[in-house]
Amino acid sequence: MSTETPGSGSGLFDSLKGFAASLVAIVHTRLDLLSTDLEEERTRLASVLLMLFVALFCLGIGVVLLTILIAVVFWDSHRLMALGGLTGFFLVSGVVTFGCARRKFRAKPRLFAASLAELSKDRQNLMDRS
User: Does pTM surpass 0.70?
Assistant: First the structure.
């Protein structure tokens, strides 16, 4: 014979059911946060790329026009020195800019940092309850 009271089985079942509901709610919240992080990152990346392409186009046209202007100004006296100096300047500027961009790309913040922090808190809370 069992010494259980008739209501104790349903109490355990209700407790497990409540725990499962809480777990599902936590997972749902974290997935929602993750999707929000993804959307924000995608939007930020698209806007940065668009601004970068517009800036590069405008700078490229400006550089070409400046180079032509300087070459025309020094055409009679020092055209080769002017063109050589401008070529060296643009090559050095390009290499320095590439190095800065590479360093900035590698130093980007960790993706999903907020989501991972919240999941870590949830894991710690669940371990404390055990």
Answer: no
